[in-house]
Write a structure and sequence with these properties.
By secondary structure, the protein is an alpha/beta fold. The protein has 6 helices and 9 strands; from the N terminus they run βαβαββββαβαβαβα. The protein has helices spanning about 25-35, 60, 115-125, 145-150, 170-175, 185-195; strands spanning about 15-20, 45-50, 70, 85, 90-95, 100-105, 130-135, 155-160, 180-185. Helix 3 packs parallel to helix 4 and helix 4 runs parallel beside helix 5. It is globular.
Length: about 200
């Protein structure tokens, strides 16, 4: 099992977007990470969570202490920095090189829609080496192929330490696909995100 290591310093030149994926335990993990995002965050954040089709909610109420806007992604909108876009239940979320978001009702991937792999693969194509991919707690292997795509594109890869995850299958699968990903506790991730001025 890879050792916990200090996170890379995120620089203004290095990062253009962040993608995050999670399933079982993912919302609880995000409750630590999203409030850590600085108010002057200069990149968009895209999130895919495995939620039931009837799980639409008021995300600002789920993350009341966030310094950045948190809301459901809308089809054909242009992503803006300092905003967290969450894939709507029962829709895949994709992003292109212009930052334009797309919602898809294509078949589920890994039995999931939204699928983490779909989001990560599109973001890897769009942002290349300027992307940070983060895989959180979850109970299946979704996100592993997507994180591998982020790595192939030259992006940074973080994985929640499996021993700290409510469900270990997703982070373990991600580490199997990207063995050199940084293995971090939620506290380490939050500290790195809070400190970045990008």
């Amino acid at each position: 099992m890879p050792q916990l290591v200090p996170p890379l310093t995120l620089s203004r030149r290095a990062l253009a977007a962040i993608v995050i994926g999670g399933s079982a335990g993912g919302i609880e993990a995000l409750r630590q990470l999203i409030p850590a995002l600085p108010p002057d965050l200069a990149v968009p954040v895209f999130v895919a969570l495995h939620l039931g089709p009837d799980s639409r909610g008021q995300w600002s109420a789920v993350f009341p202490h966030s310094a950045v806007a948190v809301r459901e992604a809308e089809d054909k909108e242009l992503a803006t920095p300092g905003t967290v876009y969450i894939a709507p239940p029962d829709y895949h979320l994709l992003v292109d090189e212009t930052g334009c978001l797309s919602l898809s009702i294509d078949e589920p991937v890994n039995l999931s829609r939204p699928a983490i792999d779909v989001l990560f693969e599109s973001a890897a194509w769009a942002y290349g080496a300027r992307l940070l991919g983060i895989v959180l707690s979850g109970a299946n292997a979704d996100g592993a192929k997507g994180l591998a795509a982020v790595r192939r594109a030259g992006g940074q890869c973080w994985v929640q330490a499996p021993e700290s995850a409510a469900a270990t299958a997703m982070p373990r699968a991600a580490l199997g696909a990207v063995p050199d990903a940084q293995v971090l506790s939620l506290k380490q991730m939050a500290a790195a995100l809070a400190a970045c001025r990008i």
